[in-house]
Every structure is written in C-alpha cells, then in structure tokens.
Design goal:
single chain, alpha+beta, two-stranded antiparallel ribbon, 7 strands, 32% helix, 36% strand
Amino acid sequence: MLASGVIIPKKPFFFIQEYKTSIPNGNPKWQLLAELLVAINKNSEKSLLGTFIIGQYWHFVRLTKEEGEKYTFSSSDSYDSLRMDDLEIIYKNLQAVKNLYIDD
C-alpha cells in the first residue's frame, strides 16, 4: 500500500509489485495476478494496478473486476530498465500511477 502524507497516511492506495530474478525462479505474472485477485475482492475495489518484474524487465498490469465473477487482466509490453528510453517510460508510468491517487 502506498499513501501520501509524512507522519499520518492520507489517501492510501494499492500498487502491488512482484519481482523474480529470472523465470526459472517462477513467473511472477501469475503470483501477481493471484495477489491482485485477493486484494480486489478483500477491498471491494473495481480496478487495481501493479507491476511484475523479471530481472531488468518491467511489465505494468491492470486487473479490472467486471460484472459477476468476470475479470479483465491487461499487461503492458516489456520495458528494459537498462535502456535509457525504457527507463524513462518506467519512471513516467510510476509517476502516472502516483498522480492517479495523490494530489500534491
């Protein structure tokens, strides 16, 4: 959970992240999906954002709860954090997530 505020948290929000050094250690995509499913149902959220990282490669995801027990899971292309242009996109995506929830 992330939140604005220095001492007292304000307007908390979920941004779930899962990291693995490589695929032989398990694909973090499915572990992240399971975590998002639990979080979306336990907190009565309609949509949650997250990211899974495999080594240097970042993927941004969104899980949206549709009507009933249906869900939509969307994943971005892979961004290589060792490439400056991709690293800028990763940074911009993280800032965009923050700006969705926090008015500073």
